[in-house]
Amino acid sequence: MTKLTLKAVNKAIAEVSKLEMHSGQGYFYFTGHGVENLPQHQANIYVYRLNDLSLEQYVAFAKGAQLAIDAHFAWEAQYDADNYATQSKEL
């Protein structure tokens, strides 16, 4: 297995999401618009070393996180639209 670098992982992640991965102390985490709406288990990857997972696994984590973020914003937009329509009818 080729030794991974954070730069290489972020390059691959950029092809499938708007997220960026960073290293913490004993874990890795995503940053980007909407990450604050994710549960902790989707925003963080709990591995000690970058090479504990493959590039494909990191990309899969990023895809899943991006899908969850997109779903959250789609739900939020629909909620706002429904709420606006309800308020308009009441006037």
Summarize the structure.
The protein has helices at 6-14, 40-43, 55-90; strands at 20-23, 28-31, 44-45.
Comma- or semicolon-separated keywords:
single chain, 91 residues, mainly alpha, 3-stranded antiparallel beta sheet, 3 strands, 54% helix
Describe the structure.
This protein is mainly α and 91 residues long. The protein has one domain. The chain is 54% helix and 11% strand. It has a 3-stranded antiparallel beta sheet with strand order 1-2-3. A hairpin with a 4-residue loop joins strand 1 and strand 2. Helix 1 packs across helix 3. The longest helix is centred in the C-terminal third of the chain and has 36 residues. The termini are far apart. The mean pLDDT is 86.
List strands and helices in order, with pairings.
Elements: H1 6-14, E1 20-23, E2 28-31, H2 40-43, E3 44-45, H3 55-90
Antiparallel strand pairs: 1-2, 2-3
Radius of gyration: 17 Å
Strand content is 5-15%
**Count the helices. How many?**
3
Number of DSSP-assigned strands: 3
H/E topology pattern = HEEHEH
Tell me about the largest β-sheet. Answer: 3 strands, antiparallel
Please estimate the helix content. Answer: 40-55%
Low-confidence stretches: none
What form results from the Cα inertia axes? elongated
| Ends apart, CA distance between termini | 64 Å
Strand order of the largest sheet: 1-2-3
Chain-averaged pLDDT: 86
Helix/strand/pairing class, anyone?
A: mainly alpha
Instruction: Tell me the number of structural domains.
Output: 1
